[in-house]
Design goal:
CATH class of one domain: Alpha Beta
Mean pLDDT: 77
CATH superfamily of one domain: 2-enoyl-CoA Hydratase, Chain A, domain 1
Order of helices and strands: EEEHHHHEHEEHEEHEEEEHEHEEEHEEEH
Helix content: 25-40%
Largest sheet: 7 strands, antiparallel
Distance between the termini: 49 Å
Strand content: 15-25%
Number of helices: 11
Low-confidence stretches: 4-92, 101-112
Structural class: alpha+beta
């Protein structure tokens, strides 16, 4: 069984950037942050990342599988020949036991599995039973859900189509608009996105000693990485001579991004027992910055204001916003405006990392709440803030999901005032589970709660001001907020 973690897609709300802005960014809704194991017990899955906004998701694997990117031409391409332009080391550091274990994993991945129609329905039922979070409709209870299983499985299910219809009705009875069934065709569409810019999909693999390896889960046939010699199952050791040990798949995917036709050097180890090889890969996708910034003068002309508009949360958002903040600060900005209007979200992890740029070490970014313990987390800032100047965050009714995480985090920690309209109110976490026949179910498993313990979903965030305030009022507001927090 496969499981994907995501924040639910928003309604189709077209962004409306200002005509004065420069080029529209390429939409990068595609973070495949994955883990992989040999256990068939999906309940032991571990949440690596969650995403938000339309079509944004990260995939987690808890049972053997072999796909990541799926195009009409390939699934799990065979290993290509080594690139002639790459340097090769024949160093081996894996024991024979590890090599044999790797062979067993490959055999397990390729082995056939037969599942009954009743088994598919029961599998979907168990996922909901163990992970579903009722976010306010109060239609779900363990007792009624158990009776539904008993009613459904008292008779045989003659066809796979009938089994899928039963799952659809079963999920619809929950009354949750985001919990739904995915046909095999719909599920495979979720594996067509490439956040790295070079046509590969990374997964995080937990080791016995608690460490994490980054491995290539899938490759795009004839994509840049595949053509250069990267193989499925390779462990990624370094990017441009930067050691990636301890980094997340999200962070490394960001390192792989860059301007079109430039080169990135990846050091990989082929399998558990193969050689270590440094491979130069030419980027073939244009990763456009979602950040626009400029230096302005305040109305009275006594202060410089750094204006930053963030259009979406893609893999470049955190890095480019940090660059903008530093440059504006060097240019003399004593105040900052972060414009999140019409920003529907994107990668939740990018939103979390951006919020950390403004917070003191130890301050809470966001809480997640869910029935499953893995969704009950507190995320805190782990470093000093990049800037300490007062901030205004501009919001409207299309500020959603990851944008709301940033806005609420800065607001509740007395780092910014919110100006504009009440935000959209999207704070749910969904997971996408693959069933054993290649279909899937999307299930609401958690929600986001602000540092001040306010539920974002369905409520949104009320701004402090409707109209742009004087900076003296901003300073006073933030000072009073800090005093109240300190008691």
């Amino acid at each position: 069984m496969r499981v994907s973690a995501l924040s639910s897609s928003l309604p189709t709300l077209p962004p409306s950037p200002s005509p004065s802005e420069t080029r529209k960014p390429q939409i990068l809704f595609n973070n495949f942050t994955t883990t992989h194991g040999i256990s068939a017990d999906w309940a032991k899955k571990s949440l690596i990342g969650a995403l938000s906004g339309a079509l944004s998701f990260g995939i987690l694997f808890s049972s053997p599988c072999s796909i990541a990117f799926q195009s009409p031409t390939v699934q799990s391409p065979p290993p290509p020949p080594p690139s002639t332009s790459s340097s090769l080391s024949t160093t081996h550091d894996a024991s024979p036991e590890l090599c044999r274990e790797d062979e067993r994993l490959v055999k397990a991945e390729t082995g056939p599995e037969v599942v009954t129609n009743e088994g598919i329905v029961e599998e979907a039922w168990e996922i909901v039973n163990d992970s579903f979070l009722d976010t306010g409709r109060h239609r779900w209870s363990p007792q009624t859900w158990k009776r539904k299983k008993e009613d459904i499985l008292t008779t045989s299910i003659p066809t796979r189509s009938k089994a899928h219809d039963i799952i659809k009705r079963m999920l619809a009875s929950l009354g949750d608009p985001y919990t739904r069934f995915l046909s095999p065709e719909e599920f495979t569409k979720m594996a067509r996105y490439d956040m790295s810019g070079i046509g590969l999909n990374l997964r995080e693999v937990l080791e016995d000693d608690g460490g994490v390896k980054l491995k290539v889960l899938g490759l795009l046939l004839d994509g840049p990485a595949h053509s250069a010699g990267v193989r499925q199952g390779d462990e990624v050791l370094a990017v441009n001579e930067v050691d990636v040990r301890g980094k997340s798949a999200f962070e490394v995917s960001s390192l792989l991004q860059g301007p079109n036709e430039t080169f990135v050097t990846i050091k990989v180890k082929h399998g558990n027992c193969g050689p270590i090889q440094s491979i130069a890969v030419q980027r073939q996708l244009v990763a456009r910055s979602p950040v626009f910034y400029r230096l302005e003068q305040s109305e009275n002309g006594n202060a410089s204001v750094g204006y930053m508009r963030l259009k979406e949360f893609n893999a470049l958002a955190r890095k480019d916003l940090a660059t903008a903040m530093k440059r504006l600060q060097d240019m003399g900005a004593s105040y900052f405006v972060l414009d999140l209007r019409d920003n529907l979200g994107g990668l939740v992890q990018a939103g979390i990392e951006i919020a950390k740029l403004f917070l003191k070490e130890g301050e809470t970014v966001i809480y997640t709440v869910g029935k499953d313990l893995q969704y009950q987390n507190t995320t805190v800032a782990d470093a000093a803030p990049l800037v300490t100047a007062p901030v205004i965050v501009l919001v409207n009714n299309k500020t959603a999901s990851a944008s709301e995480i940033v806005a609420s985090s800065l607001h509740d920690n007395c780092r910014a005032v919110l100006v504009g309209e009440r935000t959209f109110g999207k704070g749910l976490i969904q997971s996408v589970f693959e069933l054993h026949d290649g279909s899937g179910v999307v299930v609401t498993v958690g929600k986001y709660v602000t540092p001040n313990h306010r539920d974002i979903n369905g409520n949104g965030i009320e701004p402090d001001y409707r109209n742009f305030p004087a900076w003296s009022d901003v300073r006073q507001h933030l000072s009073q907020c800090s005093k109240l927090q300190q008691g």
